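Consider the tokenized backbone below.
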């Protein structure tokens, strides 16, 4: 997919409203003994014209760097633990971009290749989710509507039933069941016509789910859809039996016509990366599972996106409608809601403030792509329209992002680019924004939840860092906020683009622990 390059005009040193601001510097040293007033307020910002404090920012930064156990010669010099971890991984420093800066601004504590355009992987979701919170508002919702050709008579709807989506990123199994339950409660028990799917809210190019990494059945590769239902996926529960060396497969998601060709065996090895040991394939509505699942893994849930959108909705709708006691013998097909159709039921999504938690905590690519398209204020929404909206928004924010390249807004892309400095600007603007609480609460909390649940459990960062992670082949990244042990909050951005990037996690963690402890 083609990328897009934004070149907004920089407006440095201004807030979102355009007012001049002064960045406070910690007053760690003094040229002469401080006055009682200065001792009472050691972080008071001196006037720039005060002869006693000219050159203080550089001196203060130098002293701070000494206190952190590194040379003050340059803010681009990496902490020793980080340099060693990169060397051990075989990652050259030219493949790394880092910015560490106080949330209130001022000179960066650490700045290494800050303006280098880098692939951020899923860290790009910070751009999409912050822009969405700021443009649409945390209370924004999506509505899915059900229309009918007239009213049912005696429980029978003679014509078609229409489903019209608006791009809801989280119309999951439960919400879809609730929507169908509304239809049943309004007197429809038999549908005489077809189920017509109206996806006209989005205008999208053809999507190839295997294009990115040749894994077309992985749910993260599902394309955006104005009527995305249950992430276009099904869930299979796998139960290994170590005695019989078999694996029982249970269909957790209702699916009419689903057949499982189970060829799995229960292995005796350690669990490891169990998902890589299973080889799924699809023929029609039959899913074949080959390979093995180690008995040591215990019960696992396998998520797959096996079918095109219309087939998936057909299978799910027929199964749920039958469970609700309804009858349907028609076809499931794509179309438009006619003007004369009557609204029968509607289902609202959770608020955007909740949606962004799912996107960032669990790095949900499909939801991020849905949200990205929803930023286009026109209908039908297009990727180009969403890019234009973010371009206009970033310019209005005064963000200087000449290197920004947006593809689909999720980070699941080989073309998306941003710099560490650009991400630091974005995070600093977000910190000053009214939607700051919603954005920070959406980020994984180190050692606690989301994609950071098993990371940074020790060393002082546990529970003190809200960070978005990113990982692709050749890319490893992290960006967000960290509260150090002295109660100061920092913006931290670390991007690696290198063939050995998969080995870069120790270097990233070393930087975060270094910052947290000091």
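A designed sequence for it:
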């Amino acid at each position: 997919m083609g990328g897009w390059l934004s070149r907004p005009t920089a407006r440095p040193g201004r807030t979102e409203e355009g007012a001049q601001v002064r960045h406070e510097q910690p007053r760690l040293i003094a040229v002469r003994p401080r006055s009682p007033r200065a001792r009472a307020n050691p972080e008071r910002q001196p006037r720039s014209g005060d002869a006693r404090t000219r050159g203080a920012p550089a001196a203060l930064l130098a002293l701070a760097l000494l206190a952190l156990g590194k040379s003050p010669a340059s803010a681009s010099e990496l902490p020793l633990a980080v340099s060693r971890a990169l060397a051990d991984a075989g990652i050259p420093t030219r493949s790394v971009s880092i910015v560490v800066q106080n949330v209130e601004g001022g000179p960066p504590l650490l700045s290494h290749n800050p303006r280098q355009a880098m692939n951020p992987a899923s860290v790009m979701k910070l751009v999409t989710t912050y822009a969405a919170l700021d443009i649409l508002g945390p209370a924004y919702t999506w509505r899915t509507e059900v229309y009918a050709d007239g009213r049912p008579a005696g429980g029978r709807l003679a014509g078609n039933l229409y489903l019209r989506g608006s791009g809801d990123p989280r119309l999951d199994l439960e919400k879809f069941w609730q929507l169908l339950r509304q239809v049943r409660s309004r007197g429809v028990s038999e549908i005489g016509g077809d189920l017509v799917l109206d996806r006209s809210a989005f205008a999208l190019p053809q999507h190839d789910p295997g294009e990115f990494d040749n894994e077309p059945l992985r749910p993260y590769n599902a394309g955006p859809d104005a009527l995305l239902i249950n992430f276009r996926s099904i869930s299979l529960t796998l139960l290994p039996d170590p005695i019989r060396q078999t694996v029982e497969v249970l269909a957790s998601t209702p699916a009419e016509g689903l057949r499982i060709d189970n060829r799995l065996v229960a292995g005796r090895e350690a669990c490891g990366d169990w998902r890589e040991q299973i080889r799924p394939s699809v023929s029609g509505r039959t899913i074949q599972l080959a390979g093995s699942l180690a008995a040591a893994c215990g019960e696992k849930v396998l998520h797959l996106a096996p079918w095109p959108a219309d087939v998936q909705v057909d299978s799910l709708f027929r199964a749920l409608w039958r469970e609700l006691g309804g009858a349907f013998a028609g076809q499931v097909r794509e179309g438009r809601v006619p003007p004369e159709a009557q609204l029968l039921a509607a289902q609202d999504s959770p608020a955007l403030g909740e949606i962004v938690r799912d996107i960032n905590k669990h790095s949900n690519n499909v939801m991020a792509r849905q949200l990205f398209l929803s930023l286009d204020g026109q209908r039908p929404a297009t990727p180009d329209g969403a890019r234009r909206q973010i371009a206009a928004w970033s310019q209005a924010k005064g963000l200087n992002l000449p290197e920004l390249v947006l593809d689909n807004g999720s980070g699941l892309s080989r073309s998306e680019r941003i710099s560490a400095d650009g991400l630091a600007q974005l995070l600093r603007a977000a910190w000053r924004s009214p939607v700051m609480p919603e954005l920070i609460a959406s980020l994984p909390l180190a050692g606690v939840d989301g994609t950071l649940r098993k990371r940074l459990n020790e060393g002082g960062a546990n529970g003190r860092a809200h960070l978005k992670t990113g990982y692709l082949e050749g890319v490893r990244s992290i960006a967000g906020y960290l509260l150090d042990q002295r109660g100061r909050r920092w913006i931290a951005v670390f991007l690696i683009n290198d063939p050995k990037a998969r080995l870069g996690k120790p270097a990233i963690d070393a930087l975060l622990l270094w910052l947290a402890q000091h």
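The chain has three domains: 60-137+354-517, 143-207+309-349, 234-304.
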